[in-house]
């Protein structure tokens, strides 16, 4: 199932128009998406059929939240590549990179060093970048 406002599920003429209008943008939230999934199961007339929600990345966040919010609908959730704790008030932005770097460092220190160099260059102001 696609998140509303993506693919063919654009309820207000066009995505651009919906994103510009504050009254329609209020329907474009993760909570609304979770409610859509719960409603879909209800409308499929399979209320007694067990469901395991599966998703990756943002979809993984949604299935984890779906399981928490609707435990009576989803008997389980498989969330892959999910950054559940990557929010400003919970952890730093570097936390994920630090964990991944520790995992990969013994197996490819050169690549980890290069990825850190790229990250530093990305945050460096253009005026300080050497011309080549």
Average pLDDT rating:
79
Output the number of helix runs.
6
- The number of E-state strands comes to 2
Number of domains: 2
Radius of gyration over C-alpha positions, nearest whole angstrom = 20 Å
Describe the largest sheet: 2 strands, parallel
Order of helices and strands: HHHEHEHH
Structural class: mainly alpha
Major sheet: order of its strands?
1-2
Approximately how much helix is present in the residues?
40-55%
Q: What is the 3D form?
A: flat
Which properties best describe this structure?
132 residues; mainly alpha; 2 domains; two-stranded parallel sheet; 6 helices; flat; signal; hydrolase; dipeptidyl-peptidase activity
Can you give a write-up of this model?
This protein has 132 residues and is mainly alpha-helical. It folds into two domains: 1-84, no CATH class; 89-125, no CATH class. The chain is built from six helices and two strands. A two-stranded parallel sheet has the order 1-2. Helix 4 links the parallel strand 1 and strand 2. Helix 3 (30-43) crosses helix 4. It comes from Acorus calamus (Sweet flag). One of its GO terms (biological process) is proteolysis. This is Serine protease EDA2.
Outline the secondary-structure elements.
Blueprint (H helix, E strand, L loop, with lengths): L14 H6 L1 H4 L4 H14 L7 E6 L1 H12 L4 E7 L14 H10 L4 H15 L9
Parallel strand pairs: 1-2
Helix pairs in contact: 3-4
In short:
By secondary structure, the chain is mainly α.
